[in-house]
Amino acid sequence: MAAAASRPDRAYHQDYICRIRYENNLPPPPGSVKLLDIPIDGLDYYASPGFASRLHRSQPINIEADAELGMPINLVGMPGVFDGDESSIQAPLIIPPVNPKDKNLLRPLAELGKPKYQGGGISFLRRTEYISSDTTRARSEAASKSTPKSPGPRLRKPVDTSKDDPINVLRAAVKGFDIANPEDAYTGPDTNENIKGLDPTPAELEAWNDPKHPLKSSLKPIDFYPILPDLEAGTDAGDYMVAKFSTNPTHVANKRDTRVDVGLLRPIDDEAMLAEYSAKIAAHEADPARIPHPGGAPFNYNFFLPTDEASANNLKKKLDVDDPDRDNANLYTAKNRDGKEVFRLERQRTYETGRATAQDANHAYKEIALALRDPELDVTTQDAILDSDDPSQQRLKKGAYYYPIMQKIQLKPHRSKNLAQLGGASRFNDEDDDKRVDAWDVIVDDLDDNEKAKRSLNRATLLGDDEDAPEEDS
């Protein structure tokens, strides 16, 4: 009992936990608005020399000087000026002493401001001096970096308006061709009909003779290709169209379906859609500032593909003018009702135009497709074709051939039934047997006279002169 009585009591730590379930926020106390006497020291701020100094640094001085630069000089009355003696208007050889009252005006800027206390001969008021020059330099550099520099007035760089002149821009473009082909450079008089290129600088000539990558100077070009038009690969319209599917057009998901390379998009005639598009074009022409251009004409398309990859590969060989087996009759994989050898392309589904953009005729080459061609690297090219003088084989020469892209469309699956359920007009019904085409037979043949005439007209437009267009054999 004595041991128990002598043991001290053990202390326990306790926390008070209070849970608030409801809040009772008191409203602000009632009372009228109290007006406080707030001192306004704006006059002292704007009248201080610091404000005037900051204003001078931030605002550039705009002085419209007259012909005499604000200092009219009247030489009448100065002796000997008109006789050749200019001593009266020159500074005196002996500078007179400065008036003591004006000495404060000649102080340097470093001495302006609050006067600093000079310790004189008192040793303990001297500033700390570092013996090491490196330490002093490091501290001075750190102080200069930490001190923010006040931005001065940014002056606009003068723009040479003559460089934006269309004729000058054309001269700069001609200069690039003259650098690439100096033997064909025009050296005659510079006129509006015969524009002479600007004189190339030594740096531009060096850049052409020794080209370097703008970002990676270690890279070197391994080959050069001249940019040429492909006169023999034109279409009836003279341009090309890029079509992009919003979803996978086939059921092949684990790899790329090569049948899409020779797929066929057949537009569907829809008078109602064309009438609506014509109305949008008319509204745009009536008010082009408010109503934008509707873009390219929208169409619905039936998409056809070969039955298998073997048929697609045979069709590629038939379309390749450089393939020596393209004239083989065994490349065809089917026969039509008349017993002719054909390629059978089956319908996959119907697509509609989701988004279409068309280029203006004045900007036909804003977007182009570029194909590099080197016959020496093509194992299927025959040596006889390489040495041929036939104009139709000129595109087989080495070069980067460009093809103008006049329209780009995005194709999405056509869902006419859903539009009909939502109250929209069904433009084309997939179940309409009278309009649906289940298969398409393709025969690859040479151009007829009408197709040759269209391509000859497109080449004449590209070359700029009908006389320069190559003649076609009828």
Task: Write structural notes for this entry.
The chain has 474 residues and is of the alpha+beta class. Helix content is 23%, strand content 14%. It has 11 helices and 9 strands. It has helices at residues 2-6, 42-46, 49-58, 133-146, 166-180, 202-209, 271-286, 309-319, 383-386, 416-421, 449-463, and strands at 227-229, 240-245, 264-268, 300-306, 334-335, 341-358, 368-373, 399-413, 439-442. Strand 5 and strand 6 form a beta hairpin. The radius of gyration is 43 Å and the shape is extended. The chain starts with a helix and ends in an 11-residue tail after the last helix.
Share of helix among residues?
A: 10-25%
Give the low-confidence spans: 417-431, 466-474
Given helix and strand content, the structural type is alpha+beta
- Describe the biggest sheet? 9 strands, mixed
Rounded to the nearest angstrom, the distance between the terminal CA atoms is 134 Å
Averaged pLDDT: 76
Oligomeric state of shown chains: single chain
* Count of extended strands: 9
Rg over CA atoms: 43 Å
Number of helices: 11
Using the alpha-carbon principal axes, give the shape: extended
Would you list the SSEs in sequence order as H and E? HHHHHHEEEHEHEEEHEHEH
